[in-house]
């Protein structure tokens, strides 16, 4: 097992390097980089909004429009584009090894501090959605497997498939219209994680206020995932229930509960539990642009969109590097969880090849 883990970790190095190299190379050919955007702002090209559209490209030399070559050279050096691309890439990767992601071009703040400030929103949406999906889907999938073909199975399958077919942002709009003071009921708040006077509340009131703000965004995020996990759980249990050892256990006089929880459960739950580590880790860092925009939540999804739109390369590349590591580690933990859940699985044969 140790040799397998070491080999997987070593394979992460070229994977991360390749992903960062491709992304860095792409950014070199995207028009409207940070230097061009700053030049356009200095010219007053977008005085009304303070932003320059990404599709607009401005030549580096703007001496005939009031900006001399010296000013252009200063801006180029400020953003580090006076160095060759290879040198900039190697310097960037060297800094990333110690998690030094630099400063944001757009927000004028360190990338680490910027990400930390956005994480509460993404963690709230991801973690609660994760808990709801696993907390609802596993019991529901088991119940559907035990009642396959019944009215309960048909009704619940129809309901979750309808929820799966509705995009999350459409469901969010519907919930706002129905329960957020749109046209019917004004029950749930629409903006932010907490109320404006949250700091003045007591502990119990703070918890209640936070949970109250999370109801609509979490429902919008979680409903689409219910169908996949529920049907995965149902099919996994059905496959085990139809095996010969279950018939043998029933023939020995065991009750349905004993058959389900002593024999079927520990085998059928393996494909569900093995995805638990990866889903749990990624739940803390994922973001949803549309959900965050609709409910006025400033999280990782909105940060990623703004960074790409504003050519904020330190944020784009820094977060990509960090989340790639998180994704690779979560995949490794998912693979290792097979051994923990099912002792019959071993990496010994893999290591000996």
From TrEMBL:
Annotated transmembrane regions: 9-30, 125-143, 164-190, 210-233, 268-295, 315-334
Superkingdom in the source lineage: Bacteria
Gene3D superfamilies from the UniProt entry: MetI-like
Keywords recorded for this protein, A-Z: Cell membrane, Membrane, Transmembrane, Transmembrane helix, Transport
One Pfam family matching this protein: BPD_transp_1
Presence of keyword Plastid: no
UniProt xrefs under InterPro entries: MetI-like, MetI-like_sf
Protein name listed in UniProt: Microcin C ABC transporter permease YejB
Species this chain originates from: Thiovibrio frasassiensis
